[in-house]
Structure formats: C-alpha cells, structure tokens
C-alpha cells in the first residue's frame, strides 16, 4: 500500500519563481519566444504590408503572443502561481495553442514572402519578408518545444 503524505507531494517539481525561471528548461524558452516574436512583427511592420489579409494575421498572432508571453513571464518572475499545479496545465495549453496559431502565421508569412518575390523593384521587402518568415518558424519551434517540455515534465 502506497503512502499518501507529505513525502508523496514533495516529489513533484516546484514551479520556478524569480530569477530561477531563466534557469529552468521549459520556462527559459519564454524569453527567446518573446524576442523572436518581437522580431516577427518588427520585420513585417518594416515591409510595405502588400498583403494585408495575410500579414495582418501574422501581426495579430505575433503581437498578442508577445504580450501574453510577457504577462506569463512576469507572473512566473513575481510568483503569482503560488506553486499551483493548474499553472502547468495553463502553461501547456497556452503554448500548445500558440504553437498552432504561430504555425498558421508562419505559413501565411511564407506565402506573402513568395508573392513579394515577384513585385518589381522591391528586393528589400523580399529580404525583410524572408527574415520575418524565418523568425516566425523559429518562434513556432520554440513554442512547440515549450509545450511538449512542460507537458512531459
């Protein structure tokens, strides 16, 4: 018969608070997610946004994901989670859903990049779109890594 007591509860890893967030593997991905996501919307905003329907979704996903990830990072830094197990579920669901949204945004940005290749006299916009596509796929990968790592922790 297994005992259920304080020793069984102490085997679960504690959620990080403060600077320990940057040293713990799944939570350390939040800062690179914010950094790469910020580059996505800066690079898209630097183009002429020739395809507003496609790149509007990219801008929406990147800006909203950056803001929510920043709020999540601040909540971990200030310890708002109070070591609740529900925060792991929230974190996993958020990063999983955001990975799917970012994948759709990355594909649309790649499509906008392909279309911008054929616009005459705009090699700079094509290069900016290429960089935005790269960072969009990189950010998608970071969100996927975070979601799977927190899920299998």
UniProtKB/TrEMBL annotation:
Positions of the MARVEL domain: 21-153
Main location: membrane
UniProt keyword annotation of Transmembrane present: yes
Origin: domain of life: Eukaryota
Pfam families in alphabetical order: MARVEL (PF01284)
Assigned keywords, A-Z: Membrane, Transmembrane, Transmembrane helix
Residue stretches spanning the membrane: 27-51, 57-80, 92-112, 124-145
An example Gene Ontology molecular-function term: structural constituent of myelin sheath
Protein's membrane topology: Multi-pass membrane protein
Cellular component terms (Gene Ontology): membrane
Keyword Membrane in annotation: yes
This protein's name: MALL protein
The species this protein was found in: Podargus strigoides (Tawny frogmouth)
């Amino acid at each position: 018969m297994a005992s259920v007591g304080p020793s069984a509860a102490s085997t679960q890893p504690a959620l990080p608070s403060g600077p320990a967030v940057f040293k713990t593997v799944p939570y350390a991905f939040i800062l690179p997610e914010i950094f790469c996501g910020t580059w996505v919307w800066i690079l898209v905003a630097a183009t002429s946004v020739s395809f507003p329907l496609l790149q509007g979704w990219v801008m929406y996903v990147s800006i909203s994901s950056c803001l929510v990830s920043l709020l999540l990072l601040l909540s971990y830094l200030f310890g708002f989670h109070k070591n609740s197990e529900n925060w792991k579920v929230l974190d996993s669901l958020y990063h999983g859903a955001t990975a799917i949204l970012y994948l759709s945004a990355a594909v649309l940005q790649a499509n906008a990049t392909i279309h911008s290749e054929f616009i005459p006299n705009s090699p700079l916009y094509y290069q900016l779109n290429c960089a935005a596509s790269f960072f969009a796929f990189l950010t998608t990968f970071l969100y996927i890594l975070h979601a799977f790592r927190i899920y299998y922790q």
